Amino acid sequence: MAPIVLAMSGASGAVYGKEIFDRLVAARVETHLVITATAQVILKDEMDIPPGYFNRAGVTVHDNGRYDVPIASGSFLTAGMVVAPCSMGCLARIASGVSTDLLERAADVHLKERRPLILVPRETPLSDIHLENMLRISRAGGTILPAMPAFTHRPKTIEELAAFIAGRVFDHLKLPQDFTPRYTG
């Protein structure tokens, strides 16, 4: 299988990015990781996660300020990209085709190459501008997968809520997963 690109931007909801990361590592999916400077602060503030946490086998951690890396090029094949959490500023720049860093360039590459791009925004309420930007991304072929977990499986922990979103991400990337309960009625 081709690698997955996982990016974390500077929005609250670090638990979603960490959960997706942990699930990719557990599934032994080659992962290319980009974490913005603000996301690193939020990971520390919300979860006490140091940057070294992400140094794992099968994971390439990229400097968000570099463009001379494989994920910045359409010739580097991937199975898709996820931005979780995705700030509204990051989402807006992706929707506008503005690449100010590696995360946004990689997202732009996924849209232009028609590869799966999944954005997991974590914001409420949403303004008209947010909604218009989400619609632009959807029309360009991206998937907006808001951090809105279900409750039909009666989650007991924050991790179970995050696992639900990770499961939906895996579903959209066509990765097998059995960690999220399926609705059976």
Task: Describe this entry's structure for a reader.
The chain has 185 residues and is of the alpha/beta class. The protein has a single domain (4-172), classed as Flavin prenyltransferase-like (Rossmann fold, 3-Layer(aba) Sandwich), CATH 3.40.50.1950. It is 38% helix and 15% strand. The protein has helices spanning 14-26, 37-47, 88-96, 102-112, 128-139, 158-172; strands at 4-8, 31-35, 59-62, 80-86, 117-121, 143-144. It has a six-stranded parallel beta sheet with strand order 3-2-1-4-5-6, with helices on both faces. The longest helix has 15 residues, at 158-172. The radius of gyration is 15 Å and the shape is globular. The model has no long low-confidence stretch (mean pLDDT 97).
Radius of gyration: 15 Å
Could you give me the name of the CATH homologous superfamily? Answer: Flavin prenyltransferase-like
- N/C terminus separation: 33 Å
The helix content is 25-40%
Strand order of the largest sheet: 3-2-1-4-5-6
Provide the structure class: alpha/beta
Write down the secondary-structure element order.
EHEHEEHHEHEH
The structural domain count equals: 1
CATH-derived architecture: 3-Layer(aba) Sandwich
Mean pLDDT: 97
What is the fold-level CATH name, i.e. the topology?
Rossmann fold
Q: Count of DSSP E strands?
A: 6
The proportion of residues in beta strands is 15-25%
What oligomerization state is this entry in?
A: single chain
Q: How is the main sheet built? A: 6 strands, parallel
| Outline | globular
Number of helices: 6
Spans of at least 5 consecutive residues with low confidence: none
